[in-house]
Amino acid sequence: MKDWNILLVDDEEDFVQTLAERLELRGIECRVALDGEAGLAAMAESQPDVVVLDMFMPGIKGLEVLRLIRERHPKVQVILLTGQGATKDGMDGMKLGAFDYMIKPLSIDDLTSKIGEAVKVARS
Amino acid sequence: MLGDIFTRHFKDLHTSEDSISPERYETLKRKIVGLMAVVTMVPLLLMALINFAEFQATMSREVQNPLRVILGKTRNSIDLFLAERVSTVAFIAQAYSFQDLSSERDLARIFRVMRKEFEGFMDLGLIDSKGHQVSYVGPYDLKGRDYSGQEWFAQVQANGKYVSDVFLGYRNLPHVVICVQHVAESGESWILRATLDTRQFEKIIAAMGLEPGSDAFLVNRKGILQTSSYLYGDVLQPCPLPLPPVSYEASVVSTTDPSGRDIYLSYAYFPNTDFVLMAAKPRLGVLTAWYNLRGDLLVIFLAGVVATFYVVSRFTGLLLIRMREAEERRALAFRQVEHAQKLSSIGRLAAGVAHEINNPLAIINEKAGLMKDLLALQEDYPGKSKFLRQVEAIISAVERCRGITHRMLGFARRMDVKIEALSLNEVITETSSFLQREAESRNVSLSLELDPALSRIESDRGQLQQVILNILNNALAAIPDRGTIAVRTWNQGEEHVGFSIQDNGCGMSEDTLKCIFEPFFTTKRGKGTGLGLSITYGIIKRLGGEVSVQSQEQVGSTFTVLLPVMAPPTAAVEAA
Questions:
Q1: What is the pLDDT of residue B528?
Q2: CA of A85 to nearest chain B CA: how many angstroms apart?
Q3: Which CATH superfamily, name and number, covers B60-285?
Q4: Among A66-70, B406-410, B442-446, where is mean pLDDT lowest?
Q5: Per the CB < 8 Å rule, is B351 touching A12?
Q6: What pLDDT score does B159 carry?
């Protein structure tokens, strides 16, 4: 197991739990939050290296969560997930300081390597 | 009234239909030209007619007045000439006694003085109350003649004086006789008779100074010429012209003489004698100027009519062409907006659907991925490989769905501009497969002759697909069933690749060729937006390429596109 501290925030429980399990199989332990508030609460408890954040959730929207994370935990790197595949949303996230953005459905290998890069940046 | 006509006949102008058919434009043009023609022609025609009538009347007056005046004067001159002669004879009859006048010596003296003072006297004689010639001075020996049986003798007895018609008499010269009766206080009466040479009349008539072709002469009330007329006969012959109605004022009538000439006949009756003075003037000569002018007027009028028609027709034509173009542009713009709205609705719908599908797709993807992970961790057992194959199939199906949703999103937002290294051959094969079904159903042969050594290029797959699809769609629309479409690729030097799409369809005219890349230009009336090829052109330019078309009507068209092997910097910027 790697000692990376990863937080997954997504309202689709089936998706996010399965993703967490798959990452665990690849030696990456993750915490899971099912909306923005829960995510921010989890971060207050223990600051992760990397947050994988869905952009479209009920309650606080992904971009707003991203802004709060950048404000409260400037060192934490955020990888945005978008179901809409809209480049513009990803670009907006990048402008707000996201590490990168990925389009659902994901390729697990791409995500794993992206998380690795983000952890490196977070810990540098 | 005009308002009514306009609203009734030009209601076409007020309709708000998207397009007006050519027939209706023709009708509209006819109506406008007709109305304009009526509005301009009627006043022109009226003016011409009024002018014509006025001018003709004026011309006639101008011609007739001098004729009337000179004829009146001449009549008065002749009248005066006769009156003077009658007075002279009357004076002599009264101033001398019968005895004085009976003496031929005295009579000869009086005659000499008379001839000296008054031209035209030929002889002078005294006749007693019984009609016997008492004395006579003149070229003939008339003394002793008895006139008691003659008509003039009775008339002079009754009226006191008498002026005869012209006659040739014994001397074969035209002359008139003047007789005056004198009744003395004693009751004795006698008649003094003088003969006048009527050449004097001809002198007075000649003094009228009529122009050549005209003629003036005296006739008596029986229609016998009293002076010679070069047009109508010698003296004492019957005048062929009928006598005009009696008028002592000089008058003018238009008439035709026996030889068929149109003449102005001017005439005046003499109040104291039986004479009528007539003057004939041919109308043709007089009115030549008028006929010339009338010809000019007619030419000007006709030229005016032709010019008006030409100008009105040309201007109306131009105006309607402009109107029609404006209508067509409006209709096109309207269709374009409609189309854009449709696209935008479809786009929003597609984006919504894609988003909604992407989330469950992501779940399937992860679940299947986890199954695959778990299977990989387990030791081999019968059926494991089969399970793995199923899972792989699910993952590959998800991948296909992902492609679909991404295309839908791409359609909606034309996003994902992504420059990547790609094989043009692959893109063409893939894109043409979309149309394979339609081609097969129409028995169209869609052949691909792709260069296997074609260089890979840096370009945008989605945009290239749109370009190829647009051109192929146009080719399919242009060819009949069982036509052929050939797609070829080749390396154009080291820096470019080329592809061409050739069809054997209806081809295009030169005019169409000039416009095909213009926005909103379409030959698919009512169906096309006129945007397909303009978007195609825009994309190829953005990708740093060139497009050209060769076409021949009824032979077919070939679209040739050249693309750079390396993407231009601008394409990369737009893609970012």
A1: 54
A2: 7
A3: PAS domain (3.30.450.20)
A4: B406-410
A5: no
A6: 87
CATH of B417-576, one of 3.80.10.10, 3.30.565.10, 3.30.559.30, 3.90.1440.10: 3.30.565.10
For each of the domains in chain A, give its residue range(s) and CATH number, in order of start. Answer: 6-123 (3.40.50.2300)
For B363, the closest of A14, A86, A108 (CB atoms) is A14
Range 5-64 of A in CB contact (< 8 A) with B: 12, 14-15, 18-19, 21-22, 25, 56
Instruction: Give the mutation candidate from B359, B361, B407, B574 for the A interface (greatest A CB count, under 10 A).
Output: B359
- CA B4/CA B11 separation, integer angstroms: 11
Say what the pTM is.
Answer: 0.45
Chain B residue with minimum CA distance to A22: B370
Integer Cα distance of A91 and A10 in angstroms = 20
| ipTM of this complex | 0.89
Are the beta carbons of B465 and B427 closer than 8 angstroms?
Answer: yes
In degrees rounded to 5, what are phi and psi of residue B321? -65, -45
**In terms of DSSP H, where are the helices of chain A?**
13-25, 36-45, 62-72, 87-95, 108-123
Contact across the interface for B355 and A105, Cβ inside 8 Å? no
What b/e sequence results for A11-31 when a residue is b if at least 16 CB atoms lie within 10 Å of its CB, and e otherwise?
bbeebbbbbbbbbeeeebebb
B190 versus B438: which is more confidently predicted?
Answer: B190
What is the pLDDT of chain B when averaged over all its residues?
Answer: 83
Span B286-341, pLDDT tens digits:
667 777 877 888 898 889 889 888 888 888 889 888 988 888 888 877 877 776 67
Could you say which of B362, B406, B415 has the minimum Cβ distance to residue A106?
A: B362
Task: Select from B402, B409, B415 the Cβ nearest to the Cβ of A105.
Answer: B402
CA distance B487 to B497: 14
Structure tokens at B257: 């003489």
Q: Is residue B358 over pLDDT 90?
A: no
Point out the residue among B363, B374, B406 whose CB comes nearest to the CB of A12. B363
Give yes or no for residue B576 having a pLDDT over 50. no
